[in-house]
Design brief:
377 residues; alpha/beta; Rossmann fold; 9-stranded mixed sheet; 10 helices; 30% helix; 22% strand; binds 2-acetamido-2-deoxy-beta-D-glucopyranose
Length: 377
């Protein structure tokens, strides 16, 4: 065959393969000034039995870290899987999406080219993220990465038996089915999650753990300066944890009913609601409000749904996907990029105020730039 013939054949093969292989769904690079390193790790709490395991095993959790890297320490960005393969297949079915959808989703992260690119971990304030009941931590990846790109180390947690599937590095999985039966006991789920979050803080104050999570790190995090945010029952976890954990300096609850808020806190609390979720519709918010004795604010986003506070709107928009009709209302009516921008802008403002002593800025009151956001205080 002539050289031209070869070229034509290659072109045809290329076109065919691009038709057969589903295109990657690529999460845009985050907007902040830093690139982000991503790593995941299993952490085993040898001092605590898993309250849901039937075999008496110790509590084992999975975490992801999104860590800021100076752009000059990261000349090249790589595409990495949004979630591991078994989880991706499971979530396709759970969300009623075509096989291969979650597997095709990619994040753009940085593999530092030299060890010095990993800064002294004490430099970046620490932020813990806890996802909603049944949701994997990955559904907050774009939000976590976006926040990390503004200079925070963001660590997200999967809470086994509660997260619908947790996949460990050795390939074993824990399904969340049994806790759904336990959903009549959300206080137990919150208490377990609070213990998970506190255990993560303990681990991040251990230099040998931090070295595995951040190759090249020469010390541990300053866990005395941390904040927590979460979605749904993860938000309840963040706020409940303030009562027990002095290392957490503030908490954000994104659209979660609150549980076990039995004592007062002087530390800042931000409640973010979906369009029809506020203190007059949620007695748990009403009951807890008086116990927030420090700075407190309640906001909602007009036309948002419960999953506006997750990556779901962005993923659906990027993939040109839609959910089955019964799930559709949960994602709200706000376009994906816009949802991500609003949520991360308000979360970052809170973190800046709590962890960097910055001005409250956008948290002071309604903004022309974000007319969707309504203030209740
Ligand atoms: C999706 O993949 C799973 C496992 O890989 C398979 O069992 C199932 O039949 C597939 N479903 C569809 C609709 O292709
Ligand atoms: C959940 O409860 C139902 C009904 O009580 C039971 O049939 C099912 O086996 C339980 N599932 C798990 C995973 O425990
Ligand atoms: C908080 O109060 C609730 C309801 O009164 C109770 O069930 C729960 O055990 C309490 N939690 C803590 C941690 O004290
Ligand atoms: C709270 O939400 C409900 C339901 O959408 C709405 O009717 C009500 O006006 C809201 N409360 C306030 C104080 O705006």
């Amino acid at each position: 065959m002539s050289a031209l013939g070869h070229w034509r054949l290659n072109l045809v093969l290329l076109l065919l393969s691009s038709l057969l292989v589903p295109a990657d769904i690529i999460i845009p690079k985050p907007a902040g000034q830093y690139k982000t390193y991503l790593n995941t790790m299993e952490l085993v709490d040898t001092s605590r039995k898993d309250p849901y395991a039937t075999d008496g095993s110790n509590r084992a959790i999975m975490v992801s870290i999104f860590y800021p890297i100076d752009p000059q320490g990261c000349p090249k960005t790589s595409l990495v899987d949004y979630m591991p393969p078994k989880t991706a297949a499971f979530e396709d079915t759970d969300f009623g999406l075509p096989n291969g959808t979650f597997e095709s989703m990619k994040l753009q992260t940085c593999t530092p080219d030299h060890r010095n690119a990993i800064h002294d971990p004490r430099y970046y304030p620490l932020v813990i993220f806890s996802p909603g009941l049944g949701s994997p931590r990955f559904l907050g990846n774009a939000i976590a990465q976006s926040i990390a790109s503004t200079g925070y180390a963001v660590v997200s947690i999967d809470h086994p038996y509660d997260t619908n599937i947790v996949e460990f590095p050795d390939g074993r999985v824990i399904f969340g089915a049994s806790i759904r039966n336990d959903s009549s006991n959300p206080e137990k789920a919150v208490a377990t999650r609070v213990a998970d979050a506190r255990f993560v803080l303990d681990q991040l104050s251990d230099a040998s753990v931090v070295r595995q999570l951040l190759p090249g790190a020469r010390c541990a995090f300053n866990t005395e300066k941390a904040a927590a945010f979460g979605h749904s029952i993860g938000g309840a976890t963040a706020v409940a944890a303030l009562q027990f954990e002095r290392r957490l300096l503030g908490a954000i609850d994104m659209d979660g009913a609150l549980y076990s808020i039995n004592s007062t806190t002087q530390r800042p609390v931000l409640l973010l609601g979906r369009g029809d979720h506020n203190r007059s519709t949620d007695t748990t918010w009403q009951d807890a409000w008086g116990r927030f004795e420090g700075w407190r604010e309640e906001l909602d986003i007009a036309n948002s749904g419960h999953f506006t506070y997750s990556d779901a709107p962005l993923l659906l928009e990027l993939g040109g996907l839609s959910l089955p009709p019964d799930l559709e209302p949960n994602v709200g009516k706000i376009e994906g990029h816009r949802a991500l921008e609003i949520v991360t802008t308000y979360v970052e403002a809170f973190l800046g105020f709590v962890l960097r002593r910055e001005e409250k800025k956008i948290l002071e009151g309604p903004s022309d730039k974000y007319p969707e956001v309504r203030f209740y205080e």
